[in-house]
């Protein structure tokens, strides 16, 4: 198997995995890790047994030269037999390897060679029937495996729609994972989709610090696509602490109300705030992207708090052996003060990030209350 052959033939390549997938799931379990699998079940390579045996299952003209995108073609999901086959890919994997705990469902080619051997004289129905076929497959998967989370990916964010999300737990917004670009991407998606649906991964793209990249990714469903052995011990410790913080605050980031306090499109900075339903816990993400020299830094007014309650400010996601430079860190303020006066969270530094936990603190003897 390679990028040029084998797609569609769903068997283990023993030269690469001599001990089968089961061995991988077992080794992951020993280390306390849930094993996930990246699949692309709707596609086929021309150099595959599936293509040789079932050309009538592929969207293609039989009398024209084929055009390939990424060396692959699209299976005809309007055909019930193909629907059964694609469902069977997931079903057979789960039956054979019950240790699989997660799927990334990819789709890397648009429909080319647009002709359905199954629909024959009803070619105008192809796009609609193809999508209906996909939803039939996904419905069967969800009904049989309701507790298996799945990420929907399609050449980036090609399938970020609410109907598809009824079958998936999250989607991949873009193959562009540069942290600065992701601030803009996530800002835009956030107008339509809750943050818990946005897969946001820390990768090796960009020259920003691991902290900056992680803080950006923490605004969505945090994940890591990075070589851990290439990070230094300080970065590894930072990431472990950040994951711990994310797990503690995920309910706020994923389920809370979102306040867009500073747009990256209108400023050299960006700020997004997530407020829990009960307003007791909030998380503020603040980013210095590319400040201008000598730029006047203004306070940022918060939103969504109870003006009559007291809130303690705490910067989290700090690098090991470093102290917060946030003015007001550890102090307590009224919700009214934070929303009318605000906090100085920005700086004149390039690509610097702050993550601030804001916790309701009704009983506090701290003399710094404002």
UniProtKB/TrEMBL annotation:
One of its GO terms (molecular function) is alpha-galactosidase activity. It catalyses: Hydrolysis of terminal, non-reducing alpha-D-galactose residues in alpha-D-galactosides, including galactose oligosaccharides, galactomannans and galactolipids. Residues 269-357 form the Glycosyl hydrolase family 36 C-terminal domain. It holds the Pfam family Melibiase. CDD domains: GH36. Its EC number is 3.2.1.22. One of its GO terms (biological process) is carbohydrate catabolic process. SUPFAM superfamilies: (Trans)glycosidases. InterPro entries: Aldolase_TIM, Alpha-glycosidase_related, GH, Glyco_hydro_36, Glyco_hydro_36_C, Glyco_hydro_b. Keywords: Glycosidase, Hydrolase. This is alpha-galactosidase.
